[in-house]
Structure formats: C-alpha cells, structure tokens
Amino acid sequence: MRQSALFTKTRREAPADEVAKNAQLLIRAGYVHKEMAGVYSYLPLGLRVLKNIEQIIREEMNALGGQELVMTALQDKALWERTDRWDDEKVDSWFKIALKTGGETGLAITHEEPLTSIMTEHVSSYRDLPVMVYQFQTKFRNELRAKSGVMRGKEFLMKDLYSFARTDSEHQAQYDAAREAYKKIFKRLGIGERTYITFASGGVFSEFSEEFQTLSDAGEDTIFVDKEKKIAVNKEVMSDATLQKLGLTKEALVEKKVIEAGNIFHLGTRFSEALGLAYTDEQGKRHPVVMGSYGIGVTRMLGILAEVMSDEKGLAWPESVAPFKYHIVSLGQKGDEVSRAADALYADLTQKSIEVLYDDREARAGEKFADSDLIGIPYRIVVGKEALASGEYEVVARATGAVAKKTHGEIL
RNA sequence: CGGGCCGGCGUAUGAUGGUAGUACGCCUGCUUUGGGAGCAGGUAGACCGAGUUCGACUCUCGGCGGCCCGACCA
Known about the structure:
Elements: H1 21-28, E1 32-36, E2 39-42, H2 44-64, E3 67-68, E4 74-76, H3 77-82, E5 95-98, E6 104-107, H4 112-120, E7 131-140, E8 155-165, H5 168-188, E9 195-201, E10 208-215, E11 221-226, E12 231-234, H6 240-246, E13 253-268, H7 270-275, E14 278-280, E15 286-288, E16 290-297, H8 298-308, E17 310-311, E18 314-315, E19 326-330, H9 337-351, E20 356-359, H10 365-375, E21 379-383, H11 385-390, E22 393-397, E23 403-406, H12 408-411
Helix pairs in contact: 1-8, 2-5, 2-8
This protein binds one RNA strand of 74 nucleotides through residues 9, 11-19, 36-37, 85, 91-93, 109-110, 112, 141, 143-145, 147, 152, 203-205, 209, 220, 260, 263, 265, 267, 293, 295, 329, 331, 333, 363-371, 373, 382, 384-386.
C-alpha cells in the first residue's frame, strides 16, 4: 500500500490521557483510535495486525479439529437465568439493554450458555462426540475500571473454543490437545519464550485452571516462575501445599509481573446439566456432556505484542503478525530517478503478493525514518541515491537494527 | 464500587478573576532534501448547565467525560 494513500497519520506526541505503553504507541502510530474509556477502534494498520493474529489462531484451532462458527452478541436472558448467571449479584459485568417489546437482553460476556444451547439441537448420541467448536467474537464487559490500554477494555475481540466430550478422560485428551495448540500459537506469535503455563484458581470444577502468562512489566498479575521446568504458579494460589502438589520448590521460583494471554478451563458438566446437553451411550443410557473452554483475547494479544515488542522509538512487530513485511522508504523527489526506482521495487513486490507499505510521501528523510521506526514493520528498504549508485538497497531489520545489503533481485 | 486528580485550537503545553499565548500539525510561497529542516504569511481552541461577580477559561455547585491508586477481573 502507498503510504500517501493511507488515511491515518502518525503523531509525535502520545495522548495525555494514556499511560499504557501499548495504547500510546498504537495511537501514535495510527493503529487504533480511542472511542471511550476501554473502547478502541481498529484502524487499517491495527486491523491488519488483528487479522494476522486471528489467522494464526484459526490455523491452530483448525489443526486441533475445531469447527468455526460465530455466535451473537445479543444474548437471551432466559438462557442465562437457567445457569444462574444473569443476576447482577452473580455476574456484575453485564451490559443489559431494554427491548422495545418490554423484555431485556444482554451483550455477551462469554458464550458457554448460547453454545451449549445450540449443541443440544445437534448432539444427542455418543456418535456425535467428541466435538470442538470455536469463534472469534466481540465480548462486552461492563468493567468498573478499564485500564492498561487495549489490554483490559469494555469491548474486546476474543477467540473462544469450547470442547464437548463423553467422558472425563475424553475431555482430558481434548484439554491436553488444546494446551498444545496454545503453545504453538504463542510460539508463532513470537512470545513462546516468555509465556508460561501458570497454575491458578480453578473455580468450582477443578483444583487448578491453567493460564498462559506472558512476562511483562505492564502486567497486572504476579506469578512465581520455575524457569527450568517452564511452569509457574499464580500468586493467588501460592502456598506450600500448592508447591508440594505441583512438585515445585520455593528456591527455584522467581517472582514476575505478567499479562494473561490465554486460559483453559475444565467446565465439567455444569453447563450441560443446566441446559440439558446430554448424549445417549451404546447402552441407551443418557449422560451429561463434559465440557471445557479455552480463551485467547485477540485485541489483548495485539496489546501484549505492542507492549513486549517495542522500544523507545516505537513498535517492532514480529513478522508473523506485522501489518506488512517490508516498508519501502523512498528518499526521492517526485519524478526523479530515485522515486522511479522505488516505484519499480514497489510494483515488483506487489506483483509477487509480498505485503509492502511504500512511503512515497513528499517528506524529509528524518521524518520518514522516524515514522518507519514508530510503525514497526519488520524490514525497511531504503531507496536513496546511495542505493542507486551501488545497486544495493539497505534492508534494515526493525527489531535488531541489523542491516543487510540486497539487490533488487535478491529482495524479490 | 471507595479514594484522589483532571477537562483549553487536530495534538502537546504555559499563564491568568480583565485582549486566550507557545510548539507541533494543517494551508500558501520561497529555500532545503539520508534521521522529525529554515524563513515569511495564514488557519484553528475554553465539555455542558446553573450560580457568585461590574466582569468567569479561571471561583462555587450539579451533570457529562477522562486518568490514577485500590477493589474487581469464568
């Protein structure tokens, strides 16, 4: 894409009302727009990153055998009353809306209820299981205090996967497979090394749940990490008894700030029993379906990556999610030899379907480099007089600063 | 939800109970062109409502909105 045509502009200064690094950088670089507290719009560059994150997750969900669907944001109150999660005393994060017809509806906080309900229409035999279903969908949570930029909003995009099994052991196999898929996802997103499976409060269905926690000073949670074993314990469940159960020793643990990038839960039969999701086995006996749920916040992930992969100059996306692979920075003037060379390089890369942002604006070099650093595309190709003279372009890696010299042909 | 702070050109920010200024941006022109250029000219601003006052952007009250600390965060 030609940068002269991109409607978003960069800003030199961060907005005064944003403290979180992710929001400051994303706003300055023109990836997001803050609509209200905890509510952000995703502009063209931001959307591209979001779509890339989504696609990585989608590929791993499909590899798992997950089937994608999309459910509604508007929720049926009656369904949630059946699981006792409609009452504000029980769940305080609802956005409830009056219907013109007299009733009320709520904006989805999560989707266990509606999916379980859908499944009752399609699952009735042992032959129909096991199944895994997922979606990318907007969640709404009426947070008392939104904070941390795009990482804790009132409206956010989430991938949620749900598993349905006949037995506990079948469920466990699904759960274990989902855990492995999550590891692959975080690895592909470039945060595998700094993301730890963390034992946390399991709620009513099991002793522990597992969170995927990514090391970051911007984190809201505190965990104790065993770097050798690659596992961690959330501070909220930290105790001698817990350590003993997990086979960890206090000496090996280091306290760290983290952001929750994902979590996986055993749901047992709580939802299937409440909503009547059951199957008939070979003997003709009915059993409730054993469920699990698995979430990754997509918009939060964008925030985590902005937070973790950035420096004082700006963003530095990993290639797997970057809005473009190359950023051509032309130092030529309209119509001169340099800009003609940049045009040609842009045309050739585009022709090959290589994603490239082409800074063809009438601006000075300093401004273009500063913008390029801010926007954080993995490789910058500088097209200037030097390049024309030598026949080789400088290709600068944003994250490391490493400079390679490459000819037009080598880049293609 | 408890506590604190704040609301001014597009953005950032200074000052003030008495003409709302500066920088960046944006527009015009000239010069400049490998790390946010220079000169000249121009554009653009007080969240809403009520009150105090000769006079309110400034003080008071209410509303709306934002930020921070805590709580909360299947």
